[in-house]
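Supplementary Methods. Inverse-folding protocol.

Structures were first reduced to a discrete structure-token string of length 111. This string, shown here, constituted the complete conditioning input.
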């Protein structure tokens, strides 16, 4: 049974930074593509970024240059470094991979 547990969300002012973490257990993490998604109030869940097993990364256009996805296979953890945060980045952020979802972590960007 794969489990994904996100952490690192919180309240931050516009222009600030946060780093989200997603710790995985129960699966072959090092071989898996992992992704981050987000869901803002009243909106559908949307894809944010993906990192494949070989380390290639892909981003939604609205976060390119501001967000960085990375992984540490020794720790079975994927990260999302978020810089220059904007109010429109406010959402619940979810980790996805190995056909599983985490429970989500709230990110609020507000002054």
């Amino acid at each position: 049974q794969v489990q994904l547990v996100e952490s690192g969300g919180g309240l931050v002012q516009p222009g600030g930074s946060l780093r989200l973490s997603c710790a995985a257990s129960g699966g072959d993490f090092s071989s898996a593509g992992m992704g981050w998604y987000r869901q803002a109030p009243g909106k559908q869940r949307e894809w944010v970024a993906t990192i494949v097993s070989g380390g290639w990364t892909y981003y939604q256009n609205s976060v390119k240059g501001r967000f960085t996805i990375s992984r540490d296979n020794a720790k079975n953890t994927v990260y999302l470094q978020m810089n220059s945060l904007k109010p429109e980045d406010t959402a619940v952020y979810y980790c996805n991979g190995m056909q599983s979802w985490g429970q989500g972590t709230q990110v609020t960007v507000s002054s």
